[in-house]
Every structure is written in C-alpha cells, then in structure tokens.
C-alpha cells in the first residue's frame, strides 16, 4: 500500500469524529470515500493531509511512519489535496499557478532570474500528459471553466511530485461534459501510477472511476468494497444504514 492509516481517532471536545478508522490506498488505485453528511469524510482527509493531527493511530506513506503537523509536511511527503475551492489564484496565469512557490530560476551573470521558457515547457507537458485543454497557458485561471480549473489544480499537484492526490467533491459544481473530463483526468492519474482518494456524493461517478470504495458512517469506516464486486444499491444501503435496520429486524 502507498498509504495506510490504522486506528485513527480524532476527537473534538466530547465528540468522536473519527473512531478507530483504518484506511489504505494502493499504488495506481482510485479509492472512493463515501458517507452521509457528518460521517467524518472531511475530518479523515484533513487528517491525511496534515490539517488535523490525530489523537490516536498511525499513518504510513510509502512504507514510512509519518506524523504530519501541517499541510506543508504532507505535501513534502507527496500527498496533495485538491479542495472544492481549489486554492488557485484567479488573477494569475496557468503557468504562474502551476509554479506558484516553486518557480524555476536560472542564473544570469550570477543573478537568479525566472526561467519562463522552462516553466512554460513543463506546463505544456503536464497539461498534455493529463489531456487538459486550456485556451492558453497565459490565460488567467479565473476565465476558465470549472473542469479546466480542476485540470490545472491536478497539474500543479503533479508538478509538486504528488503520489497521492486527494480530491474533495471534484465534480460537484460541474456541468455534465465537464464532469466527464474530470473523471478522465482521474483515470489518467491512475494510468500514470498515481493514487487517488475521491470524496463524492455522486454514486454514479464513484462507480465509473473507482477501484475500491470505503464507506464511512458515524465516524467509523464500516465497509470497504471492490467496486467491481458491489452494486450502487449495496453502497447506498451501507451509507444510509439500511443494512443495520435489516439486521435489527431479523
Ligand atoms: N473543527 C471541528 N470542530 C468540532 N466538530 C467538528 C469539527 N469538524 C468536524 N466536526 C464534527 O465531526 C463530525 C464529522 O464531520 P465531517 O465534516 O468530517 O463529516 P463529512 O462526512 O465530511 O460531512 P459532509 O459530507 O457534510 O462534509 C461532525 O459531527 C462534525 O460536526
């Protein structure tokens, strides 16, 4: 497994938001994370990405124990999180967003200057690898569609050498054609051997793109299923607790 969490507990005062959660993702795997509102999905991804420190449990990335105290530490270990709001700078170009904070510089007469040519070349390579089409790499990000912006955010994560990419509801605000595109980006990431955690309320998207599905309920990870061996009905039953009702009745 590229990534493994074991026995993760996270409390907020008296509330146990994560109750001994085990969660893992293999190399080149798309793991969907599903659950009802308040089930603990956001808290879990914030713990994976260094925004929350767990009260108990262990986290391993690429076989090494890690103790993230900040999102920067998680990024440095190769874990990128793409939140719905994306954290791109709207009034900056595609190239500048992809290299924000890690510009390529070259010395000219001993003084470091931005190597725009190298950054433009790398940007075009990343976008074509992912099959992201933007009007121009010099366009402002705010002028682009939601799907194109998702593509830029993913390219930025790859440029930072992310091996595990966590995507929080990436298709929630998108039109149908754009949803297709984002699902293709996710498949491209998998084809490149990257691992993806996909949080989604859209069961159809989950079934189209994931290899396994983890179901959270009341802060616990109650089931993990291989997508090819389950059905939307079973997953919805697990999310809503219908299986508990049936078990209680029998
Ligand atoms: N910072 C916080 N302080 C106190 N309680 C919190 C905090 N963050 C989350 N919680 C609580 O932890 C529980 C899990 O919330 P979480 O946001 O992780 O659920 P979720 O599955 O992501 O839900 P949604 O789909 O609505 O985003 C909820 O009861 C929530 O109120």
From TrEMBL:
Membrane topology term: Peripheral membrane protein
Residue ranges crossing the lipid bilayer per the database entry: none
GO molecular function: ATP binding; ATP hydrolysis activity
Keywords: ATP-binding, Cell membrane, Membrane, Nucleotide-binding, Repeat, Sugar transport, Translocase, Transport
Domain (ABC transporter): residue spans on this chain: 3-243
GO cellular component, one term: plasma membrane
Pfam family, one: ABC_tran
Keyword Hydrolase tagged: no
Subcellular locations according to the entry: Cell membrane
Protein name from the UniProt record: Sugar ABC transporter ATP-binding protein
Organism: Georhizobium profundi
């Amino acid at each position: 497994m590229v990534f493994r969490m074991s026995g993760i507990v996270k409390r907020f005062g008296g509330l146990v938001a994560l109750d001994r959660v085990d969660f893992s993702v293999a190399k080149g795997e798309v793991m969907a994370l599903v659950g009802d509102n308040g089930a603990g999905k956001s808290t879990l991804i914030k713990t994976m990405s260094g925004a929350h420190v767990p009260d108990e449990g262990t986290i391993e990335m690429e076989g090494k124990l890690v103790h993230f105290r900040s999102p920067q530490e998680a990024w440095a270990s190769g874990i990128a999180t793409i939140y719905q709001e994306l954290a791109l700078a709207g009034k900056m170009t595609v190239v500048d967003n992809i290299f924000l904070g890690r510009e390529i510089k070259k010395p000219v007469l001993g003084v470091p200057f931005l190597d725009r040519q190298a950054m433009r070349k790398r940007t075009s390579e990343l976008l074509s690898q992912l099959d992201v089409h933007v009007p121009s790499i010099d366009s402002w990000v705010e002028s682009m569609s939601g799907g194109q912006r998702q593509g830029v955010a993913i390219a930025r994560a790859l440029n930072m050498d992310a091996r595990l990419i966590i995507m929080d509801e990436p298709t929630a605000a998108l039109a149908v054609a754009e949803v297709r595109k984002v699902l293709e980006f996710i498949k491209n990431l998998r084809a490149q051997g990257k691992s993806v955690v996909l949080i989604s309320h859209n069961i159809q998207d989950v079934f189209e793109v994931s290899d396994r599905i983890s179901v959270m309920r009341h802060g616990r990870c109650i089931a993990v299923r291989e997508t090819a061996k389950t059905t939307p009905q079973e997953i919805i039953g697990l999310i809503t607790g219908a299986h508990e009702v049936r078990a209680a009745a029998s």
